[in-house]
Amino acid sequence: MGGSAVKLIDNYGRLIKDLRISVTPRCNLHCLYCHPLGWEQSEPPGTLSVEDVRRFMQAMQMLGLESVRFTGGEPLVRKELPEMIAAAKELGIPDIAITTNGLLFKRKAKALVDAGLRRINLSMDAVTPEVFRAMTRGGEVKKVWEAIETAWELGLHPVKINAVMIRGMNDGEVIPLAALSLDKPLEVRFLEYMHLDNSNPELYQQRFIPGAETKARIEAHFGPLEQIAHDPTAPARVYRIPGAVGRIGFINPVAEPFCSKCSRLRLTADKKIRPCLLTELEMDIAWAFAAPNPVEALVDAILLATQRKPAFGNTLPTLRQRVMVGIGG
Ligand code: SAM
């Protein structure tokens, strides 16, 4: 927060200033790299309430919070999301964003923007309807387009698109996705597939596409990309096709990990702090929310969790207790 004198610095000297809150483990899509079939989750009693979210953000703000991103599961299935965003705005958090599949965005966008939403990342792994449907196990890409247009109409900026690249599934979409940036004010980001779905390790290795390969394919088609200066703690490396309106980003956590620059803590919907996306370690902090002075207790919990943030995440295929849809990306 602007004005906070205290900074949250972990044991490896990293400044922790960005918070991701998973507001629900529920999702209305079953993307094949994120939400394994059979992994249906509900919101059990004890799921983060609006007041819990407010208190956690307040505690983080006392420690220098600069940005909050609401995610899930699918954050828009949580009806209290506008109230959570309003709480972030009331606290004066400068950067308030969501990551969403966009299916419900058109319907809910005005309430979210009125509450204080400023930025949106939309997941769109393909422009071809059949490929999108296969990646999301039934989703309709036209809904994402509606969400993009709604975001533009409401003045959200920048609008970023996330595409997880999977060999044999959407590798044929690289050029059409990159081409969206030519005449549209979009940042199209290509994400390396992380093994956070408990898929078969050999199948995962076959499906994994290094970001450098995706970039090489784009450059073979459009010519050399121009690099754009970016926040060094942000995960994406950002480029532009010469003359394009929009941008292209690469997020390469597996082939080119950026752990040394990581500035994030995660709060899960079941009240656990997860200091690292790619490490199983989680700290149950339900006790802090229930303490007589919860904000003070949460500050203590956040300080402890930050000390335990590992130097590196584990990108190797391994059986995880929680898959991506339950963690919050
Ligand atoms: N439901 C929302 C959505 O679709 O954007 C938010 C949650 S989703 C977990 C957040 C982001 O994580 C999405 O952009 C998704 O593509 C990305 N993601 C999910 N599983 C992933 C994986 N195994 N590897 C890389 N990115 C993944």
What do you see in this structure?
- There is one protein chain.
- The radius of gyration is 19 Å and the shape is globular.
- The chain has a 12-stranded mixed beta sheet, covered by helices on one side.
- It has 11 helices and 12 strands.
- A hairpin with an 8-residue loop joins strand 7 and strand 8.
- By secondary structure, it is of the alpha/beta class.
- It has a single domain, classed as TIM Barrel (Alpha-Beta Barrel).
- The longest helix has 14 residues.
- S-adenosylmethionine binds next to strand 3, strand 5 and helix 11.
Brief summary:
This protein is an alpha/beta fold.
Question: What descriptors fit this protein?
Answer:
329 residues; alpha/beta; TIM Barrel; 12-stranded mixed beta sheet; 11 helices; 12 strands; binds S-adenosylmethionine
